[in-house]
Design a protein that fits this description.
Elements: H1 2-16, H2 18-55, E1 60-65, E2 68-70, E3 73-75, H3 85-92, E4 97-112, E5 115-124, H4 128-131, E6 136-139, H5 144-148, E7 153-156, H6 158-164, E8 174-177, E9 180-188, E10 203-207, H7 208-215, E11 223-228, H8 234-249, E12 256-260, H9 261-304, H10 306-314, H11 319-356, H12 364-390, H13 394-399
Parallel strand pairs: 5-10, 7-9
Antiparallel strand pairs: 1-11, 1-12, 2-3, 4-5, 4-8, 4-11, 6-9, 7-10, 8-9
Helix pairs in contact: 1-11, 2-9, 2-11, 2-12, 9-11, 9-12, 11-12
Amino acid sequence: MRIFASLRIAGRALLRNKMRSLLTMLGIIIGVGAVIGSVSLTTGATKQVEDQVASLGENVITVFSGNFTSGAMRGGWGSAPTLTLDDAKAIAQLPDVLAVSPEVRDREQILANGLNWNTQVMGESPDYPQILNRSIASGVMFSEQDVRSLAKSAVIGKTVVDQLFPNEDPIGQTIRIRNLPFQIVGVLTPKGFNLFGQDQDDVVVVPYSSHMHRITARIFLNDILVEASSDKTILKAQNEITDLLTVRHRSKDPDFTVRNQADLMDRVSAASRAMGFLLAGVAAVSLVVGGIGIMNIMLVSVTERTREIGIRMAVGARAADILVQFLIEAVTLSAIGGSIGIIGGMTFSWLIAYFQHWPTVTPFFWIAIAFVSSAIIGIISGFYPAWKASKLDPIDALRYE
């Protein structure tokens, strides 16, 4: 019963000074709101980046062409042609590899329907949509038979459709690449811009054999796209590819580079999480300031209510009762402030998402942390004033004016 009596007394004390109580909670409200807002924004940004990385394909391994050294001149990966079709075919035979697409690419001026457009023309295998998690919106993907026969077939992106075939169905129509006619057999589902700011829909995809023998007359690949059999075997597949190409190329130094999407995902996620913790840490400073404000107000309250404390002790209140009463007041201030701060932070995040179209996600885990932190700060901030009040001598307290 004593705890309920302390709650009633604490409630009356806080309501007697409504404005002071509100100003005392303000530091906690701002601190918790800033934590929730910053975490929501950074978590949403992290999720968006992870979704964009995932949109580049799951379990994807990319093998890049190598570097070159010529006298004093050196170049990084991709600066020298080192990958061949035989490399891609050998990789396709590895046990942990599900699909492979030899890749060649160039920017070309293409013509159709009396219009022209400069776009990226990519030579790929029929597994290209599967590897990069793309789908065909209309029509079909070219086949292995098209690859073997060097067919002049093409699959185009939505941007190319908009530029060359506005308000028309492009399926079955012809585009000219270096004055060679290619028939459009499919249109890729729109994906928008990727993590690197590239328009994934501004592309023409043709069989890699047609690109290499009809368009550019090259024998080397830009890179090789590989899909591992699962996320659990991606590192094993990457090591298998590295070992295979090391043996095949017989070079003293590796003339190729192997990267996987998991590495990119981990780096991006780590950077986003670090930024989130940094922002949350800065916002947490406001919580500390709010705690100092609660301690200051509670010390003032103890001084103002010294005579009241003396009367309570004189009629039988124990030191523990006084301690609990002031602790309850401090925790109540911080808990209410924390709750308002959580609502305010979530509202702020929602407004940012609604008006600025920024992705926001508010993890329940951080809501719980913010609330518990505010309560702990209330206990820590209120303990010394409460302890000081409980140690007052009843006689001296009654004499206090």
